[in-house]
Give the backbone structure.
Amino acid sequence: MDKAMDEGEEDHDYLNGNGHSHHHNSNTASQIQQHFSHHLQGIARINNGSFGCCPHSVLAAHHEWHLRFLRQPDKFYSDVLPDALLHSRSLLKSLINADYLHQVSLIDNATTAAAIVLRHISTSLSRNDTVVMFNCAFQAVKKSIQAYVATAGASVVEIPLPFPVRSPQEIVARFRKGLQRGKANGSKIRLAIIDHITSMPSVLIPVGELVRICREEGVDQVFVDAAHALGTVPVDVKEIGADFYVTNLHKWFFCPPSVAVFYSRNELPIETSWIGTRDYSSQLLVPSVMEFVSTFEGGLEGIMKRNHERVVQMGQMLIESWGTILGSPPHMCASMIMVGLPSQLGISSEDNASKLRSHLRTCYGVEVPIHYQAPEDDAATETRDNKNGLISGYARISHQVYNTVEDYHKFRDAINQLVQDGKVCKML
């Protein structure tokens, strides 16, 4: 690892042209910390993936929009809100490369989108129909599927995600098998749900390729759940080619929760456009976010590139210290990466994983999700650490602009301490 990074210079490349301000502000390391000074001090916050973050300038704009509504709600609803929403939508339209404004709407989150899509197709589902998805799909999405698909008597095929994963080809091969299962006995696949970046374990999916395979195999409709995409990977909905695509703005795009952009290739189901009385202010912050990211070298793309490079660097640093492995090659992650935990911790269940997570929070001030990976039947996928123990636990580390190298050192040292003290998860 680059020595300079250890010397606390880890933020120097956020400056515009090495510290020379161009036509806009440059962000020094301390300015970045000021943007997020409301974060509790002394906590290694390496879990941006769960709840995102929101800088002061965007919070202030959020408050201002909310007050404008409260001052005179009728006028706000009729004269201000329609244009303000339109402005956010048109900025997002170009960010995700949609053709038309009517394809782009703002909703609460990816789970809402799943419910809309499932309700949309459930009216015409019959016994011989199937819905195909990865087994690691988000829990709330799985619940929607049970609600809409199972009640219609249609069936669900869950495709196991290979993990740890070594290449995109492994995912493609599993996906093709899953589609064959979905088409068995003359069944029709009415919907495929594909994650752009899975949440847990976190892996970047070759989504464009999987959508193309769906088209070849005659899948009716494809819904891409890209909860983590905007702000971590370039999003081009035309190139991806799905019927529906949703991505949150409160995870990696600096909005407060909760807001997501929902793209539909054809006319959107009408229920997405108007919900009635609610706080729309988080949907109106896209211009403020664009302003915030423009203060970074390279704008949003620069942020994504650096977050990816950093999270890979930090992952490498951790596995070198612990003698473990990464859960995917670097090119199969965006701003989150899975890091194998030492086998000595004895992570042998979901319960162990959540105990370790709470223990790290309570005793070490480290916020990081822990994933238990049940061993697959296939011995070829077994992964061992340098003590020749089976790796069955992984941490999902995130990197966002406010993170510093100390956050990851704190995590590294906490795990080393637990191993040294002979602590196993059952005891925590």
